[in-house]
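FORM 7B: Structural annotation worksheet

SECTION A. Query
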Amino acid sequence: MNEFRRTISRGDVNELPIRRYEGEVRLIETPEDIERAMADIRQESVVGLDTETRPAFRKGESHLPCLVQVATARAVYLFPLQRMDYSRPLAELLSEPLIVKAGVSLAHDLRQLKLVFPFEPACVVDLGDAARHGGVSQSGVRNLAANFLGFRIPKGNRTSNWAARHLSPAQITYAATDAWACRELFLRFKELGLL
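SECTION B. Predicted structure
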């Protein structure tokens, strides 16, 4: 699969097999969890990065990010921002010039995260931008996964309550899958010379 399409139809996407992240997912809830997560993250040269925000249903309503997802080669770490102060470790990661943070629509995610805690982003790769520079018109994570990885990511939990005290197993899998797919896409883009 060294070729890719400039565009992929909804029908073609829907015919692909569904894939979800099946590896280790760690919900970060204690200082010890943070230390273990950061020890793993610091070993990486590239991580997948995504955020989730509580949906807004009224005109003019908006919310800050509720969850930050970071995918390494070994696990996906979920940082629920309402539970504790993650600003130091997340600012360290986002500012680290030796770790690529790969994701889709990262400019928006980073802008919103800066409203939660201060940081200066370094070494950020927006996969949607990279795809557009390569001539691919559809740049959402679902279409990119279909086009470049050959599988479909289910999007059913996108508008669920990410601010909930306890995330459901379906929310956890959804959130982990997006971050994992971003890391996999970065590696595939690198193979194909799109970066």
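SECTION C. Observations
The chain has a mean pLDDT of 90. Helices lie at 10-15, 31-41, 87-95, 106-114, 127-133, 141-149, 169-192.

SECTION D. Sign-off
Analyst initials: ____
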